[in-house]
């Protein structure tokens, strides 16, 4: 991507008032992009943390502003909450001498497939993929989100590459249930990648409990629960199980954020002069 | 070229500016040293350097508990942070008090638009749509508790409950934008999501007990 020294980038995350790690990947990706010096200014903004979506534009000095949602899929937040809170009128908003360019969420980018494959290979080094069942785990039941649709799309994309013996969707709260992983998986090795933007109670505890590799802490899960990712493989139900951290913690997300900016420019080049 | 914000902040520092929220800024040879304002004269503190260290210092309180509201009066003590230049200083302050420098400059320039609580609640959708039902009396009580400076939030409130209907449940100084020359005020131009979430609790509890 060409450098944009006169533009600002705002990476929008959901954030949390209870999970200290929710905003971490968004801050990490912003710090990495700032380090590369691609943009004149780089900021984060959050729905549930600070700076909020209502505050962040006061931090920005550039008149050319890109907004990239650090969300796994399009849905309620990318279509309703973020545009409303930032007072956006569409992909391009002109206001007070500023141009705000609203990009696609990171999870929509075609490179997600590559990132999932990379994470799966990293978590199970030396394990032959032709003898491995790979699960992409989503939440399920998200009423207004399309994360399940995005997860299914990624499973199809990965399966089409023919690297893994089988590639499967599973969910926490709807069929196919991740709790029944051993019934769904036919291979001796099983790799599990949570399709979430950050680590938190779901990846630290809920999914591990459903997999059978942890017990419920009664809400005591904390940053120390990263331990769950450090004991692979788990020998369980006659298989070798490898459990990865949420895909959104992958450092290459910083590249995908920049590629969503480039993709925006490619689509809107005719209507916006930078 | 120095940005408007960096320039305005440098001028504030040159005019004797030293305090933001619970942070004390000390200009030193080779940069700046930040500390908790109650730790300025302490020497038995842990030394950190670089703006990124501010992220963790701001993220957890004294007991290691997550601080979702960075302007809550529970910044941990027992540290000092060395920052090499004005750029690092600004990045660190953006971690300690996100957006507060920018909001301050907007206010200085007369460009800060305040939003009444009613307008903030009126645009909520989804699980927060119910917050529109909060009564004025419930809102006063909620703000008087949730936003209070001692134990709640250090920001000065600039918004009313509705036009012509100010918040009356907190002392007058909570609504003043003026600050001593050495202090940069933390300004709240619109109710935060934490207060909106609290409003939802208030409405839900009232409905449950009705």
UniProtKB/TrEMBL annotation, chain A:
Keywords: Lyase, Metal-binding. InterPro entries: CbiX-like, Sirohydro_Cobaltochel/CbiX. One of its GO terms (molecular function) is lyase activity. This is Cobalamin (Vitamin B12) biosynthesis CbiX protein. It comes from Chthoniobacter flavus Ellin428.
UniProtKB/TrEMBL annotation, chain B:
Pfam families: DR2241, Fer4_23. Residues 6-105 form the DR2241 stabilising domain. Gene3D superfamilies: 3.30.1360.190, 3.30.70.2320. It comes from the Bacteria. Residues 109-201 form the DR2241 4Fe-4S iron-sulfur cluster binding domain. InterPro entries: DR2241_Fer4 (IPR041346), DR2241_middle (IPR041181). This is Uncharacterized protein.
